[in-house]
């Protein structure tokens, strides 16, 4: 009976939340770009041991595959060859031009397959492009998951470091965690005294102080981001005011940098820190620190040994809320940050919308979800979920 | 006042100033007679509000936001209330796991939900549709309803349900006539939370809404990406007023509890 009441929402969330996300994440290990374009080649290469060169079936298969794919691309206006080339290029640089070039030239080609291909480009006489095709043949791959860790499979199929210009993702992950940690720490440093003040202020001041936290809390994220943009931009409020007061000679570059992103993130996330800490401080038995002081502890010692430990669940809940949300921030860094301030969510959006590379978008999402899950689990271990309170 | 109290008060007041000032500082710009984004204002006028009102996309965007938010809140509110009642009523196997699934939309980054829904809704024809956006926003808002209604049920005495049953009421009738009226402030507050979540949401709207479903935050996002006009400040003012009303509603509902 009780389960039947939960079922509608559970099924709803399974349908529009859990399953879509699950299906999306599996894209990270699916290999879909190469095998449909080069089915015979992939089949022929599956029997190859990777030593020397593949047999003639692979060469003949590639020619037949490319002829067919070219006809299909021209008929549908699709870019299947280009997509396969882009995927292969990520593994073995050179494919972006090699595959389309070969596809154009084989149309008129006659004679033995092996000589035809090596005649078009001598790279086909080496093992490297064939190995790349074999690795990309699918149906499953660890290519994307390795790529977001700045790793790849080398020619022998062993895991190795990615090429330097492709090895950007560890840096992006650290940057995301670093910005999140910094925002959490600043929120805690500002939020704890504020929560303490609200919890200890005279009763008639409390509603006003709370309103000062809740009003910004309820204001749209996009409005608060817009406010910072208008304040900080070149011809914005801050620069105009500084110039009018003759403090600066020219406009300061306040926008599109790390500082602007952090400032706005702290501004947006601060209430999430203040409210749980306030809730735990309000529930605190204030006779305990007073008793400690009356027993001879200094106020500092009473705080460190009594009040602070008792408010730890609030600190934990606030830090969890702030850190997790900071990891997922997309809109604010996208609008206020420069190229070097973008975090993992930005690149998920980038791969999903600009380059339509679902594999990389999914692999980065896996990374992000893993980070969030680890933080949540760590919190469950340290604090426990029974005590999570939101205002 | 002791020095430490003074320090505490000044820190706290500065923090609140930091929270309030940015938005309060830029909103008056929307009444400017000029078109610059700084002070002093060349004069006062309502021209940017007139622009908001008469443009082809701002007012429809506001309408879309209100419509999507209302339907999503209604959907999340009813499903969430039922689920919370079920969770509260009796323990059953896998309750922890189910709770984790129900609350997951709170912690999963919105951008992942957005891209996943774009992929899943595409073949179903739900992208670029009102229905798709409502479904996505309802999923994001539902956990807030569950949490709020569960909190409201803490105050409800379960004995009343047994009393209703002994007087001959069916379980459904007992819920509808005895329990629901008492937890109604919590249900309403949960629905307001869900509405606010939808009204605040950019990522999902960015990825699965078409031009005809553009919401106000989505429209502001595009505006901020191109060139900031003062109409955006007028739109921000509208959003701030709506948020204020929502906060007022939740505060009153809390008091009623």
UniProtKB/TrEMBL annotation, chain B:
Ranges that cross the membrane: 12-41, 61-85, 97-121, 133-153, 183-208, 228-253
**Alphabetized PROSITE patterns for the sequence:** ABC_TM1
Q: Coiled-coil segments, which residues?
A: none
**InterPro entries, alphabetically?**
MetI-like, MetI-like_sf
Listed A to Z, the keywords are: Cell inner membrane, Cell membrane, Membrane, Transmembrane, Transmembrane helix, Transport
Q: Does the keyword NAD apply?
A: no
Kindly list the GO CC terms recorded for this protein: plasma membrane
Q: Where does the protein end up?
A: Cell inner membrane; Cell membrane
Main location (coarse class): membrane
Q: Where is the ABC transmembrane type-1 domain?
A: 62-250
Q: Its membrane topology, per UniProt?
A: Multi-pass membrane protein
Q: Which GO terms describe its biological process?
A: transmembrane transport
The record's comment on protein family reads: Belongs to the binding-protein-dependent transport system permease family.
Task: Tell me the protein's name.
Answer: Polyamine ABC transporter permease
Species of the source = Teichococcus deserti
